[in-house]
Amino acid sequence: MASQSNGEHAHAAHGDSLQMPEGTQRFETFPAENPAEIVFDDADLQQIEAYKSRYPKKEAAVMRTLWLAQTKFGWLSEDALKLVAKTLEMPPADVFGVASFYTMYFKKPKGKTHLAVCTNISCSLCGGYEIYNYLKEKFGLENGDVTADGKLSLEEAECLGSCGTAPAMQVNNGEYVENLTVEKLEAFLKEKGIL
Ligand code: FES
Fold first, then answer.
1. In CATH, what is the architecture of 113-191?
2. Which end of the chain is more exposed for a tag (fewer CB within 10 A), N or C?
3. Long-range contacts of 88-97 (CB under 8 A, 24+ apart)
4. What residue spans carry the region label Disordered (predicted)?
């Protein structure tokens, strides 16, 4: 065990080093292609007021408002996150924090078909990495990338709550494809016109 008299080791042991631990996900934000288009109209603002009215504090409406922004703009650019913060009168850092925590919020533009492939424990034991790596290699993608034709994007996801039917993937934040095999995945990709 590191001696507590060694300041450097003592700090590292308590995890308060200023260095980012290895494997920590970095949260980057990207500006919208056209920031002028990142605005809420009257109907959106009315909807956000309705969200706010359901909670004792306006901040509690942040998840629904982020979802509305994502549905409207396609993904959550830095401009969209700032718009949500301004609309809810919240510190941008708080809104960025919520958006960065949940994978359902897209922080980068996505492909027409976005596949979130689970590689958490149950899925990885049942071949989740075989599925994920197949997509990486077949389409030359890394986590978060979009194909040049914009048809497909890939994400390595944490548990999707479908462990009993592992391995699983989620399509465009909606439909689940479960008990995946490479054959089943290929059939899915053909059906979508990707393969
Ligand atoms: S581990 Fe993949 S859905 Fe739970």
1. 3-Layer(aba) Sandwich (3.40)
2. N
3. 88/48, 88/52, 88/58, 88/59, 88/61, 88/62, 89/58, 90/58, 90/59, 90/62, 94/59, 94/62, 95/62, 95/66, 96/27, 96/29
4. 1-21
pTM over 0.70: yes
pLDDT for the residue 21: 54
Say which CATH architecture domain 35-101 belongs to. Answer: Orthogonal Bundle (1.10)
Q: How far is the CA of 77 from the centre of ligand 1 (A)?
A: 28
In ligand 1, the atom with minimum distance to the C-alpha of 118 is 2
Q: Is the CB of 163 under 6 A from ligand 1?
A: yes
Contacts of 133-138 with C-beta under 8 Å, sequence gap 24+, read 134/182, 134/185, 135/185, 138/195
Q: Are 153 and 162 in contact (CB under 8 A)?
A: no
* Residue 170 near ligand 1, beta carbon < 6 Å: no
Distance (angstroms) between ligand 1 centre and the Cα of 107 equals 22
